[in-house]
Amino acid sequence: MIRVSRVAASVLLLGAFAVPMKADEPAKTYSYPDAPKSDTVDVYHGVKVADPYRPLEDPDSDVTRAWVEAENQITGAFLESIPQRDAIRARLTELWDYEKFGVPRGKGGRYFYARNAGLQNQAVLYTQESLDGEPRELLDPNALSADGTVALAGTVASDDGAKLAYGIAEAGSDWNVWKVRDVTTGKDLDDRIEWVKFSSAEWTPDDSAFFYGRFPEPEPGQDLKGANYFQKVYLHKLGTPQADDTLIWEDPEHKEWEATPTVTDDGAYLVLTLHKGTDAKYRVLFRPFNEHDAEPVHLVGDFDAEYEFLDNDGPVFWFKTNKNAERGKVVAIDTRDPRPEKWVELIPEATETLESVDVVGDRFIASYLKDAHAVVRVFDLKGNHERDVDLPGLGTASGFAGKRTDKETFYSFTSYTTPSTVYRYDVEAGRSSVWRAPALKFDPSGYETVQVFYQSKDGTRIPMFITSKKGLKKTGDNPTLLYGYGGFNIPLTPGFSPSVLTWLEMGGAYAVANLRGGGEYGERWHQAGTRTRKQNVFDDFIAAAEWLIAENYTRTEKLAITGRSNGGLLIGACMTQRPDLFGACVPGVGVLDMLRFHKFTIGWAWIDDYGSSDDPEEFKALYAYSPLHNVKPGTCYPPTMVITADHDDRVVPAHSFKLAATLQAAQGCDNPILIRIETKAGHGAGKPTAKIIEEAADQWAFLVKTLNVEPKP
Questions:
Q1: By the 8 A CB rule, do 403 and 393 touch?
Q2: 424: β partners
Q3: What pTM was computed for the model?
Q4: Cα separation, 405 vs 183, whole angstroms
Q5: In this predicted model, what pLDDT tens digit does every residue of 229-248 receive, in sequence order?
Q6: End-to-end Cα, the chain, rounded Å
Q7: What does the angle CA 562 – CA 372 – CA 486 come to, to the nearest 5 degrees?
Q8: Which residues contact 499 (CB under 8 A, 6 or more apart)?
Q9: What is the distance between the alpha carbons of residues 598 and 256, in angstroms, rounded to a whole number?
Q10: Which helix (H) or strand (E) covers residue 547, if one does?
Q11: Do residues 122 and 142 touch, judged by C-beta distance below 8 A?
């Protein structure tokens, strides 16, 4: 997933693989539809680059729609011919059918949390008057559409717990509409905020209004593909039309700049964190909250480092920053004299990567990554270490939200074989207790996760998690799924997926490589996989595959690779660089045309990680690995299923359309090149449970068909 926030970056959807044709076997070409073509040629710094499938960039044209329908018919017929598909879907449905809880948040004496009874397409928001009180349904997004394709995009309760601002997204789009619900009555107010993207709501201290960010309304027909620039921050007063909202911030001279508003918990200040692109490099402005006509003034930063506002003690602000500390630290900055030489270091840089910090119960709760798994430490407000939070094992802990005055907080813990269990943490006593633990139709005791380390091409030490049945024999015959991401400072940490359980039950091994470009080891690790250094990411992933083969976990014919979004780029680059290494490839919603990605929706923001074809040196690097531009006619590519969605306005489906058409035309052997195009879906967030299960079943069916795996659901 392209980094806009770090939420949900660990969603793992399985791919499929198959045995490639032997070199001496005659090719039997599948009958693929003719894709619409043109004679388009672009010139980049003197280099002519053909783009024959440019017409596929228009998702609404008649020729594109006809091609999509024809491709889906081919893929559908291929999958429907697989007799085991129904059994796989049935087992996935069974495993998915367990109660799931979100981490609760207390506001005004009430608690708010999400719950999915099992197979509901969308989780339902509940509230209760006390921790042990009777739950009451507050908002059911399943009632907003017949097919579950309308999802909650965010919920923020007012401090008094009386009102709920919530965003909704339709068909997987990043565009949100925000509304307000009265918590007591369960009825919506008349407020409606449109054209919001990548923004939440921030309530004022008196709960009568909230701040939000929005983009200009796009031109007709451009809402799913037009570039998004010139964000503005507004204040919306309840009971008034959006047209009357007060403009709080804009910068017409810098179209890429965006701002996130924060009201300090004491209600004394408004903080604006400016960002551009996806790098965590910020510029922070502030003003006294009650001085409504005052212009926010610069406090710290000039897009040179991370400055994440945590809380304040009067005029002294606390920030998490990586300024002169690549793995992160906490500093105190006096707003009356914010010069760097006057900063006070509260929590120094550690050997682990500081992932997040919350201020709850007059303490800093600091979440670290140690070799890509969670370590959580508690400090007093002077930065003295008090204790570590006792976690159940090797996994991921998330949550710990709250206010400085709260005495409790909540967090979830999950691993590759353990679904999210929600804990209440007594901050003063330092004790965790289970609040909600799901019951699952699966016994995890027969499975294990181990962490290994291997060397990449240049000798860099890379961690990798491998999950399998206990006592897995290294015969070289184990079907193995290798997953990766490697970008945007996003770490891959242990996470639970019913799809993975299905794979494990079938005797497979599941490997997750923690590549450079991610956030596992701080900013240097991230930067080592960006721009002209992006090839390091692909080298790391290829080395992971070679290690799994060398250590006799698997062999080429039984090795599948998959990834989504930036991970889809990873798969596309690796399959075009080393088609001989993999048994099959499943690039999902990937960034695959590296010369034009920045021309659509929010793609310009990814230049921080990828660079731009507008730059001569970066063009050379991009052109050298861009999956679309490195497909070679006559090459035998592994069986491939490209996955995308028609409403993906994060990574527009043209990336996948053009790669699939190019691969189909170039394929030099009988291995199938399929594309699965989901309808009424987007990049992944908010996808209904039914669609998730259907996609996973299709991917596993593809595997069974091509590898002759005998599933045992």
A1: no
A2: 410, 433
A3: 0.91
A4: 23
A5: 999 999 999 999 999 999 99
A6: 30
A7: 40
A8: 12, 13, 14, 92, 696, 700
A9: 12
A10: helix 535-550
A11: yes
Amino acid at 175: W
CA distance 103 to 543: 37
Tokens of 478: 């184990």
Tell me the β-bridge partners of 111. Answer: 106, 128
Q: Which pair of structure tokens corresponds to residue 119?
A: 């197979």
**Does position 73 have pLDDT exceeding 80, yes or no?**
yes
How far apart, in Å, are the Cα atoms of 435 and each of 123, 131, 356, 370, 424?
18, 9, 22, 26, 6
What is the C-alpha separation between 679 and 682, in angstroms, rounded? Answer: 8
The DSSP symbol for 398 reads: E
pLDDT of 684: 66
Q: Indicate whether 635 pLDDT > 60.
A: yes
For residues 8 and 618, the model is more confident at 618
Give catalytic residue positions: 565, 683
Radius of gyration for the alpha carbons in the chain, expressed in angstroms and rounded: 25
- How many beta carbons lie within 10 A of that of residue 550, not counting itself? 11
Tell me the C-alpha to C-alpha distance, in Å, between residue 21 and each of 27, 76, 350, 457, 710. Answer: 8, 22, 50, 28, 21
* Spatial distance between the Cα atoms of 678 and 647, rounded to a whole number of angstroms: 9
| DSSP code at position 682 | -
Q: Are 56 and 658 in contact (CB under 8 A)?
A: yes
Interatomic CA distance for residues 56 and 65, integer angstroms: 9
685: which 2 tokens?
A: 């967030």
* CA separation for the pair 207, 204 (Å, rounded): 5
Mean pLDDT of the chain: 92
Taking the alpha carbons of 64, 70, 71, 76 in that order, is the dihedral positive or negative? positive
Tokens coding 580: 């001989």
Q: 351 in helix, strand or coil?
A: coil
pLDDT at residue 707, as a whole number: 72
| pLDDT at res. 710 | 65
pLDDT tens column, 137-186:
999 999 999 888 898 999 999 999 999 999 999 887 889 999 999 999 99
What is the DSSP code (8-state) at residue 144?
Answer: G
